[in-house]
Design a protein that fits this description.
Protein name: Co2+/Mg2+ efflux protein ApaG
Organism: Flagellimonas marinaquae
Number of domains: 1
Number of strands: 9
Pfam family, one: DUF525
Strand content: over 45%
Largest sheet: 5 strands, antiparallel
GO biological process, one term: error-free translesion synthesis
CATH architecture: Sandwich
Distance between the termini: 19 Å
Radius of gyration: 16 Å
InterPro entries: ApaG_domain, ApaG_sf
Shape: elongated
Number of helices: 0
Helix content: under 10%
Order of helices and strands: EEEEEEEEE
CATH topology: Immunoglobulin-like
Length: 128
């Protein structure tokens, strides 16, 4: 598990290897990840956007920006959390992701970024 706290928001990520498959005559490696975003602060916040840097050992870094997460812009009250699962395809059996969430504090209207810790992907057969 990879964990980081920024401005009272705790982000924890766990990863899984989902398998390999062929697409367009190339092998792809599928990985899943589950993110838990916990509000350790005293104000209600909303996640409005995300930014990802995706690292693949055989390709250039890819940047992904978008609204919310998996089609939602969750509101997270103090002491509560939001958990979701997603995934990515890599050209190699080893890679990583990192990024940040754009958040809004409902009490102060402050906009801020919450860091997502760098988390690694590795197919079981690719590590010693």
């Amino acid at each position: 598990m990879f964990t980081q706290v920024t401005k009272g928001i705790k982000v924890s990520v766990s990863t899984t290897f989902e398998g390999t498959f062929f697409k367009n005559y190339k092998v792809h490696y599928a990985f899943g990840y589950t993110v838990s975003i916990e509000n350790l602060g005293k104000d209600t916040v909303q996640l409005t956007a995300r930014h990802w840097d995706v690292f693949d050992a055989l390709k250039e870094m890819e940047t992904v920006d978008g609204e919310g997460v998996i089609g939602r812009k969750p509101v997270i009250k103090p002491g509560k959390s939001h958990t979701y699962s997603s995934g990515c395809l890599l050209a190699s059996p080893v890679g990583a992701m990192r990024g940040h969430y754009h958040m809004v504090n409902f009490s102060t209207a402050e906009e801020f970024e919450v860091e997502i810790p760098t988390f690694k992907f590795a197919a079981p057969f690719a590590i010693n």
